[in-house]
Amino acid sequence: MADWLDFLFPRDCAATGEALGEDAPGHLGARGAAALPRIGDPRCLRCGQPFFGALLADRACPRCADMDEGFGRAVCAFRSRDLARELIHRAKYRGEPQLIDDLCRAALSDPVFARHLSGSTLVPVPLHPERLRERGFDQAERAARSLAAGLPGCRVRLLLERRRRTRQQARLRRRERQENLDDAFGLAPGAGVPAGERLVVVDDVLTTGATLASAARVLVAAGARRVDAAALAHG
What averages of pLDDT result for each successive group of 10 residues across the chain (235 residues)? Predict the structure, then answer.
């Protein structure tokens, strides 16, 4: 069926508008994937942001020097700008959730990002049920499932629930983001932290890290051995 649909309605690259070949996966061609603003080294080993100054002795950036992030290390594949930001916004707000899968596929071509997730249990940051109904899909869960499908030994567990609807983080300042998330997350009904598994909380974008840190603290309090974090984009 997919082959016939591609024949009748050829797919165009979501970035360049060029027609994609029948064997091209998803909706992002090679030129489109190459245009994504990737994060390379040096990058902070705590929050994952690209950093062009002097890193501290533990290879953390000054922003992270005195912060308790709640997670061990975060890794992001792209900067949240230009094409990466556009595709994420199209996925979340313009009814194109399949673009999350394309971003995940491109993200896994980054060996640092792929190695960070390999063999781990991915725990998506959940949306509030009201926002889930409005949007129609949970971008973090979709990203986690897409990433796990592309990595051997990866699995997804829905361990968290969002207990209250928070304001959108993108509109808040740093301190407001942290206050906005106080007691926002808890363990999902019937969920328990799996013994011996390395957990990675997953979201689409990491800005200050407040959302991922808040989610990670719930898992640590529930007895998680180690919790790291990952996001498709940083900024």
Answer: 44 94 89 96 86 66 72 95 97 96 98 96 96 95 98 96 74 57 88 94 93 95 95 95
* φ, ψ of residue 70 in degrees (nearest 5): 90, -20
Cβ atoms of 202 and 143 within 8 Å: the answer is yes
Give the C-alpha separation, 136 to 206, whole Å.
Answer: 22
Domain boundaries along the sequence of the chain: 1-35, 39-234
- What CATH fold (topology level) applies to the domain 39-234? Rossmann fold (3.40.50)
Map residue 121 onto helix, strand or coil. Answer: strand
Q: Is the dihedral of CA 57, 77, 88, 18 positive or negative?
A: positive
The enclosing H or E element of 106 equals helix 98-107
pTM across the whole model: 0.87
